Amino acid sequence: MKFAGVSLDTPKVMGVINVSPESFFKGSVKRGEELIETAVRMVEEGAAFIDIGAKSTAPYLETEIPVEEEIRRAVEAIRAIRDAVDVPISIDTTNAKVAEEAIKAGADIVNDVTGLKGDPEMVKVVKEYDVPVVICAHQENVRNFSDPVHEVIDSLKESLQIAYKNGIEKENIAIDPAIGFFRPEYPPWYVWDSKVIANLKLLKVFGLPILVGISRKSFIGAITGREDPSERLEGSLAATAIAVLNGANIIRAHDVKETLDVIKVADFIRRFTL
Ligand SMILES: Nc1nc2c(c(=O)[nH]1)N=C(COP(=O)(O)OP(=O)(O)O)CN2
Ligand SMILES: Nc1ccc(C(=O)O)cc1
């Protein structure tokens, strides 16, 4: 299996860099020289993809910014790192205009946390520029509170229908269960996220690469009592090992070196599963 030309015979790391000062983990926010240095370092440490976010999508933060500002941040960042790294760059956005300008600036992949459901133009941009897309599970109104992984699967089915109807090919799609994004009143989101990671294997029904974003998220904070995202690395690595054991193909993470070691060990052990 491949995604954006990258072999997924072993699980890979997608290194996260944000150019959005409002992002929930301040250690992920880079600018200027530091942005380029971080991208180069992540690739040296083994990142197979770099994901650039120009607007936070944290559901519990005030994150609204004008679209012009998101475009400005995204284009500047992608232009800065494009020639410094030789791995595919994804643009983390829910806005079709941002995606289009980012692709023109050199982005190779669109990463849409609304799974093509937020901006109706998004699927058209993905099709027109013929770029791979990360489709996240997204649901305005959660219907099945007791069975998170099946709600995630149903949400992904809707997004995949949008993709296939518009001529996006299977080879160009990775799916993502959107850890931290579902915020039902019950069960609490950290139980939701834990149930999804525990049952991630069920997402294999789609036969598509599975990408998971766990890094330093609030469910790790809720479980460990670590309120500061800067203290959530160890908890993130524990959940990463479980996600890999359960079939994750790409781990989106802020800490490339540590995450890649965990992936290697978890995947090595996974291969001996009876
Ligand atoms: N496909 C995918 N994309 C994502 C995911 C995720 O789980 N999957 N999580 C994010 C949260 O991390 P980030 O550090 O970008 O936080 P921010 O939204 O506050 O910038 C942002 N983007
Ligand atoms: N964009 C996101 C950022 C952070 C979280 C989380 O901390 O759970 C979820 C989504």
TrEMBL record:
Listed Gene3D superfamilies: Dihydropteroate synthase-like (3.20.20.20)
InterPro entries (UniProt xref): DHP_synth-like (IPR045031), DHP_synth_dom (IPR006390), Dihydropteroate_synth-like_sf (IPR011005), Pterin-binding_dom (IPR000489)
Keyword Metal-binding: yes
Organism: Pyrococcus furiosus (strain ATCC 43587 / DSM 3638 / JCM 8422 / Vc1)
Source superkingdom: Archaea
Pathways per UniProt: Cofactor biosynthesis; tetrahydrofolate biosynthesis; 7,8-dihydrofolate from 2-amino-4-hydroxy-6-hydroxymethyl-7,8-dihydropteridine diphosphate and 4-aminobenzoate: step 1/2
Molecular function, one GO term: dihydropteroate synthase activity
Domain (Pterin-binding) ranges: 11-264
Co-factor requirement: Mg(2+)
Name of the featured protein: dihydropteroate synthase
Stored PROSITE patterns: PTERIN_BINDING
One BP term from GO: tetrahydrofolate biosynthetic process
Catalysed transformations (reactions): (7,8-dihydropterin-6-yl)methyl diphosphate + 4-aminobenzoate = 7,8-dihydropteroate + diphosphate
UniProt keyword terms in alphabetical order: Folate biosynthesis, Magnesium, Metal-binding, Transferase
EC number: 2.5.1.15
Keyword Metal-binding in record: yes
